[in-house]
Design a protein that fits this description.
Blueprint (H helix, E strand, L loop, with lengths): L1 H12 L11 E6 L1 E4 L4 E9 L5 E8 L6 E5 L4 E3 L8 E5 L2 E7 L1 E10 L6 E14 L3 E14 L4 E2 L3 H8 L8 E7 L5 E9 L4 E8 L5 E3 L4 E6 L2 E10 L8 E9 L2 E9 L3 E2 L16 H18 L6 H14 L4 H31 L13 H19 L10 H10 L2 H16 L7 H9 L7 H21 L13 H8 L1 H19 L4 H23 L6 H19 L15 E2 L8 E3 L2 H9 L4 E5 L5 H11 L2 H9 L3 E5 L6 H9 L7 E5 L8 E2 L6 H11 L2
Parallel strand pairs: 2-11, 23-25, 24-25
Antiparallel strand pairs: 1-3, 2-12, 3-9, 4-8, 5-10, 6-9, 7-8, 10-11, 13-14, 13-21, 14-18, 15-19, 16-18, 17-18, 19-20, 22-23, 24-26, 26-27
Helix pairs in contact: 3-9, 3-10, 4-8, 5-8, 5-10, 6-7, 6-12, 6-13, 7-8, 9-10, 13-14, 17-19
Length: about 700
């Protein structure tokens, strides 16, 4: 204790240089070596320590002090606030401090003025720190880096290291409530209830400093249930009023890494995200909240029947009702119930996949299977064969291949056809997000017990299957269906066109996932599958020539070769889009930039509103939103008028960072549209799944105030 206090005194009063005696090594990194006027450059001040030597967080705790940076910048370059990585808590002789061992990279956004002249500039800073081990010494060093301002942005060799450093910053979106207990004269206990989810260990709360109160370093921790913790901290006030806001960082160990969440606790109510990194309020829990979200899941499942992604299967159901309309009521009821069973079984299978992924520590989202190009191509092949089957190109007999049997099941009548229609409808439905559905599934994914996901998926399936089951159980309502006749064959053939349209859409998704250069090979695969179906129908079924099987096997072998060696469908490439690349979805559309948490933070640091669109090409609801409510002249003009930044996250496969961000805002998948106010202390405005122009314009107007 004495050595720490002595070190603090030395750091504050010594005027002679002692940096030569310190062992901490300091360097200045930039994530870009060339930038354009108006860009933001991320700087990193790296402090390297060895052994038990440590430096301090922005709040040292009972002793210690933060690293300070004094910038020496050109007039057209300005520095923002330091972004501090998550520290460790150190206890010595009853004193608690918050420290860094081995390495700490302090991140600072540097804003380049829009009128900055071209040419090289020097970025300089004087760094002062306190380092402690057996003794404490103040250190000081001058660091510098070169930067070129010009017509293009070019990453530096340190860009990857700084990207890794950003991952160690506190995140947002912790689900927390806080309350006061056991009040005394000038001391109270702060209780913090935190839902970390499974796998978290050693939860704690690191407070930020305040002159009006002090939060003790010692923390009492109790696990209320798996993934749900109660933290208890002693708080002393130094003024007449008790604090209503206590900022800090919630910390927990997740596996081998320590993760933090910026938070501002509000005792007596729910927590609010820390200033500048706002998040939505935590998901409410309890029996009534669970029941309300289940009702939302049911309604969302019902609405899925009217979404464009399910229309191909609805056409098959219409064909089925035409064929069954004048059958015996018991047969109609039986087939309707079997269709419902197919839907429920498929949603149960999806729930189990999600559950297993969650237990394995993987991030999951709604529509996750459509992010897999192998699944998409198999589904495209099935839809192609369904269409050809409806056209009458071939009929499937017992003993057919898997894809052929699947296509026949979708197009045929009877129990097998009804069940497979339910399966097909389920997998196609996940390309859409109905109103109320995203929030309900997001609530399910946020539950601390993963098994609670299963009832939600079953209720969604129940809502989706309900209209067909109700119609089947009331055969009298099907009297409007015309009597079977020759026209039915024409109607059946017509129903093949929606199937082929769906196959083309799925093909476009696979091309996006694997790259435009693979499009020829993927299209050729579907062509060969169609040719194999034609050979089967004409030569095997029509003329009984079994030698034609050899031709079919050769065609299938070519398909396998093209998929594995030419399209490399099991090895999709990683996205290589640049952070500052301008993305235009339409010739005169919005100038989007690539989304990242750092891009949001940089824009908010400039005091600008931010529009964020989390979308995907396989999400049809997202495409409807873009066409009707985002990529319209009124929104483009509003963005320019309020000087807003537009950020787009449209990756085909959503990584963990994106899925975590969706979960923080109560969504299990895309679409998610956020509008961040220019006031960085305010949380983002979360828009509904289905948008209208008025919703977007009103949110932008509010964000500009």
């Amino acid at each position: 204790m004495v050595r720490v206090l002595l070190g603090l005194c030395l750091w504050g009063i010594l005027a002679w240089p002692v940096a030569a005696a310190t062992r901490t090594k300091v360097a200045l990194w930039l994530d870009s070596e060339a930038v354009r006027p108006g860009d933001v450059v991320w700087a990193g001040v790296q402090l390297r320590m060895s052994g038990k030597l440590h430096t301090y967080w922005q709040y040292g705790g009972d002793a210690g002090g933060p690293t300070r940076i004094q910038w020496q910048l050109p007039t057209h370059v300005s520095a923002g606030e330091i972004q501090w990585p998550v520290p460790e808590k150190l206890e010595e002789s009853g004193l608690y401090t918050y420290v860094y061992y081995e390495e700490a990279v302090l991140l600072i956004p540097l804003k380049i003025a829009s009128n900055a002249p071209a040419g090289p500039v020097d970025i300089r800073a004087k760094v002062a720190w306190l380092e402690c081990e057996t003794t404490c010494l103040p250190g000081e060093a001058e660091v510098s880096a070169k930067l070129t301002i010009g017509p293009e942005q070019r990453p530096s060799p340190r860009a990857e290291a700084l990207a890794e450093a950003r991952k160690r910053l506190p995140q947002t979106g912790a689900k927390v409530t806080a309350r006061w207990t056991l009040p005394k004269e000038d001391t109270r206990f702060l209780e913090v209830e935190w839902e970390t989810g499974p796998g978290a260990q050693e939860p704690d709360f690191f407070p930020l400093p305040d002159d009006t109160f002090t939060v003790a370093g010692d923390t009492s921790v109790k696990e209320l249930s798996p993934g749900r913790w109660l933290l208890r901290k002693e708080v002393k006030r130094h003024g007449a009023q008790w604090p209503t806001r206590i900022p800090g960082v919630l910390v927990a160990r997740m596996g081998d890494e320590q993760r933090g969440f910026s938070i501002t606790l509000m005792p007596g109510g729910e927590a609010q995200a820390a200033s500048g990194t706002s998040a939505t309020p935590p998901v409410k829990t309890g029996l009534w909240a669970y029941i309300i979200q289940l009702l939302g899941a049911f309604v969302g499942g019902f609405i899925l029947n009217f979404m464009p992604c399910v229309l191909p299967v609805i056409s098959l159901k219409i064909l089925g009702f035409v064929n069954q309309g004048h059958s015996e009521p018991r047969i109609v009821r039986r087939l309707g119930l079997i269709y419902g069973a197919g839907v429920l079984a498929s949603f149960l299978a999806l729930a189990l996949v999600v559950l297993l992924a969650r237990l394995a520590g993987q991030s999951v989202s709604w529509g996750i299977q459509l992010q897999n190009p192998v699944f998409v191509m198999v589904l495209a092949a099935v839809m192609t064969l369904v269409g050809l089957n409806l056209f009458g190109v071939f009929e499937v007999m017992p003993g057919s291949g898997v894809l052929g049997a699947a296509s026949a099941l979708a197009a045929k009548e009877g129990a097998a056809g009804a069940f497979f229609n339910g399966v097909l409808a389920t997998f196609l439905a996940t390309a859409c997000t109905a109103p109320m559905l995203g929030a309900a599934v997001g609530f399910a994914f946020a539950q601390p017990w993963p098994a609670l996901i299963i009832p939600f998926f079953l209720v969604i399936g129940l809502g989706m299957a309900l209209p067909y089951v109700v119609l089947a159980c009331n055969p009298a309502w099907l009297k409007w269906v015309p009597k079977p006749g020759a026209w039915m064959e024409r109607f059946k053939q017509f129903m093949g066109f929606p199937m082929l349209a769906t196959a083309i859409w799925l093909l476009s998704l696979a091309i996006e996932a694997l790259g435009a250069d693979k499009g020829v090979w993927l299209g050729l695969v579907l062509l060969l599958i169609g040719m194999a179906a034609w050979v089967y129908g004409v030569w095997v079924q029509g003329r009984g020539r079994k030698r034609a099987w050899l031709v079919i096997l050769v065609l299938v072998a070519f398909c396998a070769y093209f998929l594995e060696n030419m399209a490399r469908w099991r090895h999709p490439p990683e996205s290589s889009a640049g952070q500052d690349e301008i993305i235009r979805l339409h010739p005169n559309g919005i100038e989007w930039r690539r989304w990242s948490p750092e891009a949001v933070a940089a824009a908010r640091a400039q005091g600008r509103p931010v529009l964020v669109d989390f979308t995907a090409s396989w999400c049809l609801t997202c495409q409807v939103n873009a066409k009707t409510s985002l990529e319209i002249p009124e929104v483009r003009e509003k963005l320019k008028a309020i000087n807003a930044v537009a950020l787009l996250e449209n990756s085909y496969r959503k990584n963990k960072t994106v899925m975590d961000e969706l979960a923080r805002h109560g969504r299990a998948g895309v679409p998610l549209v956020l509008v961040y106010p220019k006031d960085a202390s305010k949380p983002p405005i979360v828009l509904p799944e289905l948008l209208t122009p008025k919703m977007v314009l009103n949110a932008l107007e509010e964000a500009a105030r």
